[in-house]
Each structure stands twice: as structure tokens, then as C-alpha cells.
UniProtKB/TrEMBL annotation:
Taxonomy of the source species: Archaea, Methanobacteriati, Methanobacteriota, Stenosarchaea group, Methanomicrobia
Alphabetical list of PANTHER family matching this protein: CHLOROPHYLL SYNTHASE, CHLOROPHYLL SYNTHASE, CHLOROPLASTIC
Topology of this chain in the membrane: Multi-pass membrane protein
Biological source species: Methanothrix soehngenii (strain ATCC 5969 / DSM 3671 / JCM 10134 / NBRC 103675 / OCM 69 / GP-6) (Methanosaeta concilii)
A Pfam family this chain is assigned to: UbiA
Localization: Cell membrane
Transmembrane segments: 58-75, 95-123, 143-162, 169-192, 219-238, 245-263, 278-297
GO cellular component, one term: plasma membrane
Chief place where the protein resides: membrane
Protein name: Prenyltransferase, UbiA family
Keyword Transmembrane helix recorded: yes
Domain of life: Archaea
Key words, A-Z: Membrane, Transferase, Transmembrane, Transmembrane helix
Keyword field contains Translocase: no
Length: 299
């Protein structure tokens, strides 16, 4: 039997029309869709950035993953509605706040998942298989794996890797395993930064947080940072030595994130890094230098 929260009815009138669409969009967390940008790694680092014939397929994969990840976020909010109502920020999410019913949200989520997977099946079958694996792993995470420390972080990292693989698979290109490793380790950095924030601000927001300590998370964050920078440096050295030009920007970007995690408790919302002027400027410099190296110096 569904929990009582499934039948929760807000004192407010149920939203309709544009209001309902707004609540659904908010529940899909479009501000977190930046994570799906990992899909563009394949077309960028396979030297196909200016191959315009490939872009429709990559953009299609990006849109599909935005819809699918948004649907998973809705299911997660339904599952965690009671706990979210106790969280200082999550309690304002539409489902937890009561402005969007769980049944309506669940119906829309299932519909979006079905449509996305069906379209992918007919447009690009390998992409559909990656999406199915992504959905399976994330549902397993939502209902079971997120209760186990360390496993929760590994599953999140696997989700990022699947995005990167999907972006390469959809255009049938090869990218270095070193880059896949960098994606995996970057996910660790983001996840442990988030756990650090949660331990300080909302230690009861996740069951697995009782299996972490601040010192433990700090150590794991430091290890992940070291491994990430080493992996990126090795990629630059072994795959394309010209990419070593980008090392200062890569190192500064990671160091700056860690600095913000400890000084401003930034880890809870990694997307806020885009509001940090120093980080944003560094990201632009890294992007420009990487494109120049990959497409001009190489030529």
C-alpha cells in the first residue's frame, strides 16, 4: 500500500493549466540538467565539434536524457516526500509542499519515461539501451541503493559515465577511457562535496549520512580530487600532449570548487559554481584553450 503521503492533499486548490505545467517543470529540476552536458564530451573530444551532421543526434540524446532524468527526479520526490517536508529547502518542492499531487506527478513521470524510451527505440536503438540501463540503475538507487554510504556516490558516478557513453554511442565515435575516468572521478568530487554540505546543514536528510562523518567525507573528497587531477594530467600526457596547456585551468577549477565547499559550503548546489565569477571565467578559459588545442594546434 502506498504511504499516506501518496494521498496527501494540499489545502490549496490543485493547479491546472499553466500552473500545473510550472509545478511539473519545477519538479523535473531543469536547473540540474546541466549534468547532461556530459553528453557533449564525445563530439568535442573526438574532433567532431564542427561536424554539423552529428549535432542533431547529440542534441537529441541530450533532450532525451533531460526528460528521463527529470522524470526520475519526480519519482524520487514522491518517494522522499515525507523526509523532504522536514528539510529546510526541499520542503518547498511542489510535491513536498503539497501544490502538486503525488498521483499526478507519478502519472506524468511514467508518461514521459515511456515516450522518451519509445522515441529513442525507433530513432537510435543503442541510445535506448543506455537510457534503459540509466533508468534501471536510478530507480534501484531511489528505492534501495541510496541508503548505503559509498554505494550511493558510486551509483551517481555511474550515471554520469552512462551519459558520456551515450553521447559517444549516438554518433558512433571513440573517446579515450581516460576521459571516461575523469567523468567518473569528477562525479565523486561533486558528490562528496554535496555530502559535506548535507552533513553540516541537514544531517537527517539522507539515511546514509549516518554512515558518514565529516572527517571521512573530507578525506574522500581530497582523494577524489587527487585522482581526478592525476587522471586528467595522464590523459593530457598520453593521449594529446598539447592538452597539457589546459592543465592550469583544470587544476584551478577543481581547487576553486573545493575552496568554495569549505569556505562557503557550496557543495549542496554544485550549479552555484556558475555564479562564481572566478570559476565562470576559468571555465571559459579552459573551454577556449581546449577547443584551440584540439582543433587548431592539432590541425
Amino acid at each position: 500500500m502506498p504511504p499516506m503521503s501518496f494521498y496527501y492533499i494540499s489545502a490549496k486548490a490543485p493547479p491546472t493549466g499553466d500552473a500545473l505545467l510550472k509545478e511539473l517543470m519545477q519538479s523535473m529540476r531543469p536547473f540540474q540538467w546541466y549534468k547532461n552536458m556530459v553528453i557533449f564530451i564525445g563530439i568535442t573530444f573526438s574532433y567532431n565539434l564542427f561536424n554539423w551532421e552529428m549535432w542533431p543526434r547529440v542534441i537529441f540524446a541530450f533532450i532525451m536524457f533531460c526528460l528521463i532524468s527529470g522524470s526520475i527526479y519526480i519519482i524520487n520526490d514522491i518517494k522522499d516526500v515525507d523526509r523532504d517536508r522536514l528539510h529546510p529547502k526541499k520542503r518547498f518542492r511542489p510535491i513536498a509542499f503539497g501544490t502538486l499531487s503525488s498521483r499526478t506527478a507519478l502519472l506524468v513521470s511514467i508518461l514521459l519515461l515511456s515516450i522518451s524510451l519509445l522515441i529513442s527505440f525507433f530513432v537510435n536503438r543503442p541510445l535506448c539501451y543506455i537510457e534503459l540501463l540509466y533508468v534501471f540503475i536510478n530507480l534501484l538507487y531511489t528505492f534501495y541503493l541510496k541508503y548505503f554510504a559509498l554505494i550511493d556516490v558510486i551509483v551517481v558516478a555511474v550515471g554520469f559515465v552512462l551519459r558520456a557513453v551515450a553521447g559517444s554511442l549516438v554518433i558512433n565515435v571513440y573517446i579515450s577511457p581516460w576521459l571516461i575516468l575523469c567523468v567518473f572521478l569528477m562525479s565523486f568530487v561533486l558528490a562528496f562535496g554535496k555530502r559535506q554540505n548535507e552533513l553540516l546543514t541537514a544531517s537527517s536528510s539522507r539515511d546514509c549520512l549516518s554512515q558518514y562523518t565529516e572527517k571521512m567525507v573530507e578525506g574522500l573528497l581530497n582523494i577524489s580530487v587527487s585522482m581526478l587531477l592525476m587522471a586528467y594530467a595522464l590523459y593530457s600526457f598520453y593521449v594529446d600532449t598539447n592538452m597539457m596547456i589546459t592543465l592550469p585551468f583544470a587544476f584551478y577549477g577543481v581547487f576553486r570548487f573545493v575552496q568554495l565547499v569549505y569556505l562557503k559550503n557550496f557543495g549542496g548546489e554544485a550549479e552555484l559554481i556558475l555564479k562564481d565569477s572566478a570559476s565562470l571565467a576559468n571555465l571559459v578559459l579552459w573551454t577556449v584553450s581546449a577547443i584551440v588545442v584540439l582543433y587548431e594546434v592539432r590541425a
